[in-house]
Amino acid sequence: MTPDKRATTRLRTLKGAAIRFGTTSMDCIVRNMSEGGAALEVGTPMSIPERFALYFKPDMVKRNCLVTWRKAERIGVRFV
What we know:
The protein has a domain at 19-70. The protein has strands spanning 11-21, 24-33, 37-41, 51-56, 61-70, 74-79. Strands 1-2-3-6-5-4 form a 6-stranded antiparallel β-barrel. With 80 residues, it is mainly β.
């Protein structure tokens, strides 16, 4: 097992959110989250830019994000 390099522990969650960049918005699911970042389940991670705004549903709290990794249907982000 690979050691976890995160500064803070992520907690599992299942929360709806929206990724927004420019005039584009796409729904996603927050799979785990910490104070510093999150793992998001998305349909097509390659179409998402390096920086975007993430809005947590239902209250639409905004966090600016920087993509740190991409996999098949997930991306890891750091909150900036």
